[in-house]
């Protein structure tokens, strides 16, 4: 924090391809990505939207705070007003693995490359002099 003036925490999760009874999306197909900031309380909502837009540009269905809003981990160490941000990214398992066997799917390498591309863009954005979203 001292050297850069801000902290960005990204909490990555995987989600089933179809919601279950434990969630509000029971029986519904999940999007490719859910980008969550606890309804704008754990990060600048513009950053959350920016992240979702990067995944959409890569051809994915990315939603913000729906059906998941972010869990306790993203709430624990944040103070957006002090430039300490935390964002949860849920990734649909069906885009990188065969859920029944837990084996990598044919799309695994593409997703890996796309996440690398996103991370490079994110690092460039947050380390630039005008790191405003």
Which key terms come to mind for this protein?
single chain; Aminopeptidase; four-stranded mixed β-sheet; 29% helix; globular
What does this structure look like?
With 133 residues, the protein is α/β, with parallel strands linked by helices. The chain has one domain (7-127): Zn-dependent exopeptidases (Aminopeptidase, 3-Layer(aba) Sandwich). It is 29% helix and 22% strand. It has 3 helices and 6 strands; from the N terminus they run ββαβαβββα. It has helices at residues 45-57, 72-76, 108-127; strands at residues 7-15, 33-36, 62-64, 84-92, 97-98, 103-104. β2, α1 (45-57) and β3 form a beta-alpha-beta unit.
Order of helices and strands: EEHEHEEEH
CATH class wording: Alpha Beta
The CATH architecture is 3-Layer(aba) Sandwich
Class from secondary-structure proportions = alpha/beta
What's the helix count?
3
CATH H-tier superfamily: Zn-dependent exopeptidases
Major sheet strand order: 1-4-2-3
Distance between the termini: 18 Å
Write the layout of secondary structure elements.
Blueprint: E1 7-15, E2 33-36, H1 45-57, E3 62-64, H2 72-76, E4 84-92, E5 97-98, E6 103-104, H3 108-127
Parallel strand pairs: 1-4, 2-3
Antiparallel strand pairs: 2-4, 5-6
Question: Can you describe this structure in just a few lines?
Answer:
29% of the residues lie in helices and 22% in strands. It has helices at 45-57, 72-76, 108-127; strands spanning 7-15, 33-36, 62-64, 84-92, 97-98, 103-104.
